[in-house]
């Protein structure tokens, strides 16, 4: 079999085919199609309110698709509930702060792994990623700074060693040094575990620095796609993201 034929025979890790979804009777994302291969980072960019979060919530099962089909490694997962998506190896880092404020850092991290043994095996891997989390395992999560809370959200997703991470605007409100750190973590996680990433962003330079490909979502539809390394990508994207 030629390499091209082998590629065609291997299903994408995530495939979103003509998916529409929204709230009540309203459609917010309208016939969206995209695919992500194992270990690939795709960034979906778009201005506020274009449907980026709705797309992620539809993949994760928080919002039920009105039409279309979603597959994970060739298996249909359309309208599967979020816990089933998590068990299938999809980790979701939402835009909102979703940590348990009254629990410790360690207790928050344990939520992301199936059992104590797995936690014990994996926790030290955070030393390469976010060593500060290891120093603060016993600290109450609510006392962390905003940037540290985002680190905790990412650490929890990384510890799950997912096949696919859905990450919603992780760079929002972060200092530039922390944004660089997030980029390193995403690259390292992909290298180490072959994790694929769907990265929803408005921060253009961060998104292009980590992604292999980009897609632009405008009023619920994909209007542009391409390789993130294309010399013209940034100017095309600035055009779509300008207010
Ligand atoms: N729970 C909801 N109920 C009703 N409408 C909603 C709900 N959540 C989002 N919307 C609407 O869906 C549209 C798309 O919102 P969405 O959050 O998906 O966009 P976004 O591109 O992620 O924007 P942002 O960057 O501001 O998060 C908006 O018009 C928004 O008002």
**Global Rg:** 18 Å
> Structural class, from helix and strand content?
alpha/beta
**Judging by the overall fold, what is the CATH architecture of the domain at 1-89 and 163-171 and 195-243?**
3-Layer(aba) Sandwich
Q: What's the total number of strands?
A: 10
End-to-end CA span: 48 Å
Overall description:
The chain has 243 residues and is an alpha/beta fold. The protein has a domain at 1-89 and 163-171 and 195-243: Rossmann fold, CATH 3.40.50. It has eleven helices and ten strands. The protein has helices at residues 3-9, 52-60, 82-87, 105-110, 116-122, 126-129, 131-135, 146-159, 176-193, 204-210, 233-241; strands spanning 14-23, 26-36, 41-45, 65-72, 75-76, 90-93, 164-168, 196-201, 213-218, 221-227. It has a six-stranded mixed sheet with strand order 6-7-8-3-9-10, sandwiched between helices. A four-stranded antiparallel sheet has the order 2-1-4-5, covered by helices on one side. α9 packs parallel to α10. The longest helix has 18 residues, at 176-193. The radius of gyration is 18 Å and the shape is globular. The model is unreliable at 1-6 (pLDDT under 50). The site of adenosine-5'-triphosphate (ATP) has 11 residues, from α2.
């Amino acid at each position: 079999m030629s390499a091209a034929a082998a590629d065609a025979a291997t299903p994408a890790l995530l495939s979103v085919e003509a998916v529409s979804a929204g709230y009540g009777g309203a459609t917010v994302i309208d016939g969206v199609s995209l695919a992500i291969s194992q270990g690939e980072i795709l960034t979906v960019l778009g201005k506020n309110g274009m449907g980026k979060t709705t797309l992620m919530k539809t993949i994760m099962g928080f919002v039920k698709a009105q039409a279309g089909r979603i597959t994970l490694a060739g298996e249909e997962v359309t309208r599967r509930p979020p816990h089933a998506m998590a068990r299938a190896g999809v980790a979701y880092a939402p835009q909102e702060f979703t940590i348990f404020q009254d629990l410790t850092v360690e207790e928050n991290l344990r939520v992301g792994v199936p059992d104590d043994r797995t936690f014990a095996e994996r926790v030290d891997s955070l030393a390469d990623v976010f060593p500060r989390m290891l120093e603060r395992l016993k600290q109450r999560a609510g006392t962390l700074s905003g940037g540290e809370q985002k680190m905790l959200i990412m650490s929890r997703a990384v510890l799950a060693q997912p096949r696919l991470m859905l990450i919603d605007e992780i760079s929002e409100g972060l200092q530039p040094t922390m944004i660089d750190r997030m980029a390193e973590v995403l690259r390292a996680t992909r290298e180490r575990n072959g994790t694929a990433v769907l990265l929803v962003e408005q921060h253009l330079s961060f998104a292009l620095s980590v992604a292999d490909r980009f897609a632009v979502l405008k009023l619920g539809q994909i209007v542009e796609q391409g390789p993130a390394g294309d010399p013209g990508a940034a100017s095309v994207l600035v055009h779509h993201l300008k207010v």
